[in-house]
Amino acid sequence: MREREIMNAKKVDKIAISTLYVIAGIIVTILAALILYILVRGIPHISWSFLTSMSSSHKAGGGIGVQLYNSLFLLVITLIISVPLSMGTGIFLSEYAKKGRLSNFVRTCIEILSSLPSVVVGLFGYLIFVVQFQYGFSILSGALALTVFNLPQMTRTVEDSLRTVHHTQREAGLALGLSRWETICHVVIPEALPGIVTGIVLSSGRIFGEAAALIYTAGQSAPALNWSNWNPLSISSPISIFRQAETLAVHIWKVNSEGTTPDATAVSAGSAAVLMIFILIFNFGARRLGAYLHKKLTSA
To answer: Which residues of the chain fall short of a pLDDT of 70?
Structure first.
């Protein structure tokens, strides 16, 4: 009787493991098919001219140079705003916050923000940053909206990375005469840096591919950039945060929904392939960078 129960348990275990492998295989197959479909359709349309020239509204042969620059510039501005906020919030929740109403309230706010659809965040950004603060459709409005959208994920990443640092390292820093803040800055954060950097890079891919929140904040036009004008207050300056900036993801949506160019399908396919390549670079690069930092810190 006992042997029969053991045999049945082994059969159930094998069936469960096989089911999990099948489910994982289905997910990987769907993801791989989607990525390959986008790349196979889009890569033949990618060229140096396509990556550097301006887009065209009516004639064939337009590129994505301005949109690609806008996406990268918007990503940099968003990280400049969101990284300090997420670092501060993550450090507070991990190192200072005690169980109570304040920490519960902060965590509840983070949960609510993480559950908001990007369209809702975009409408919020339009009402607050574009209309109320009068920033207009601009890179600054888009960056602030993306900060609201991406802050919960980055905060969780920072908090989880800090919590993985063993408490004995904190105790060692305090035993050496360091203050609590000095221990966090010189012991805890360097140890948690691989996880923090990995989370930031992964968040960068999410920011780079966002469209819905930017339609209502960063705008849907990509004016030509005057590369001889580096005045940050000038609308035509490439470093101005107050100019409209149609990003690559918004450009794909616009070409598919409103495109009037004869080669709209080719432009859309090529843009989607470029966007997918960047997202893959962010994802694989994050893991390689995290592993490299972890190896470097552990060997030091």
So the answer is: 1-3, 5-6, 259, 297-300
Residue 153 near residue 83 (C-beta atoms within 8 A): no
Largest CA-CA distance found in the chain, in angstroms, rounded: 86
Domains of the chain in start order, with CATH, are 46-299 (1.10.3720.10)
Q: What is the pLDDT of residues 20-72, one digit of tens each?
A: 999 999 999 999 999 999 999 999 988 888 888 888 777 777 788 889 999 99
Whole-number pLDDT of residue 9: 73
**Single-letter code of the amino acid located at 196:** I
Residues contacting 31, CB < 8 A, separation 6+: none
Residue bearing tokens 């603060």: 133
